[in-house]
């Protein structure tokens, strides 16, 4: 499945900008490419940048990386739940509460990237296991329709979005 194969009814309009950021390649390629790019990008940041906040109450790049990890776990769980259950409905999550409680800034970038890579490997294996029909299944997440395939591409586009924010506001 490629982003061009997803219809706008498979996800909330809020997520359109994320889906639009993903190159028109298949989902596994997009997840793999994103992992390579994020590993290179976050590894290249200095300790000063990794701990930097461009404004009060804004996340550091370490917190952003852990936010990407948390979000990927959330989108993967949604995809799994929708793939396996009928009429599934899941609550949303408050990313600000997650970030506040993450302890990301007390961790090393090596530790965060190890966790990121483990989560990404699990996501790739999960999405590889889904058939084309399963990728089209959907459920409700935070009171919005979301398909299994769209959840996968949201992982990719969300990651691209946050790398761009760091480039624009932190570097």
How would you describe this structure to a colleague?
With 171 residues, this protein is mostly helical. The chain has one domain (3-169): dinb family like domain (Four Helix Bundle (Hemerythrin (Met), subunit A)). Helices cover 61% and strands 6% of the residues. It contains 8 helices and 3 strands. It has helices at residues 16-21, 27-44, 47-50, 61-84, 95-100, 109-128, 132-136, 148-169, and strands at 89-90, 138-141, 144-147. It has a 3-stranded mixed sheet with strand order 1-2-3. Strand 2 and strand 3 (144-147) form a beta hairpin. The longest helix has 24 residues, at 61-84. The radius of gyration is 16 Å and the shape is globular.
Topology, element by element:
Layout: H1 16-21, H2 27-44, H3 47-50, H4 61-84, E1 89-90, H5 95-100, H6 109-128, H7 132-136, E2 138-141, E3 144-147, H8 148-169
Parallel strand pairs: 1-2
Antiparallel strand pairs: 2-3
Helix pairs in contact: 2-6, 2-8, 4-6, 4-8
Provide a concise account of the structure shown.
The chain is mostly helical.
Unreliable spans are none
> How are the strands of the biggest sheet laid out side by side?
1-2-3
Number of helices: 8
Question: Structural class from helices and strands?
Answer: mainly alpha
Categorize the overall geometry. globular
């Amino acid at each position: 499945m490629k982003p061009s194969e997803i219809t706008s009814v498979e996800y909330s309009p809020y997520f359109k900008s994320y889906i639009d950021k993903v190159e028109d390649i298949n989902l596994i390629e997009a997840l793999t490419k994103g992992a390579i790019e994020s590993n290179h990008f976050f590894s290249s940041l200095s300790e000063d940048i990794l701990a930097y906040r461009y404004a009060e109450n804004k996340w550091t790049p370490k917190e952003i990386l852990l936010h990407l990890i948390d979000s990927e776990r959330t989108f993967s769980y949604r995809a799994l739940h929708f793939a396996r259950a009928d009429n599934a409905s899941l609550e949303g999550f408050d990313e600000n509460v997650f970030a506040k409680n993450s302890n990301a800034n007390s961790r090393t970038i090596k530790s965060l990237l190890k966790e990121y890579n483990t989560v990404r490997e699990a996501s790739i294996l999960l999405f590889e296991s889904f058939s084309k029909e399963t990728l089209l299944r959907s459920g409700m997440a935070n009171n919005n329709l979301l398909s299994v395939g769209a959840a996968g591409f949201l992982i990719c586009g969300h990651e691209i979005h946050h790398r761009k924010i760091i480039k624009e506001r932190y570097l």
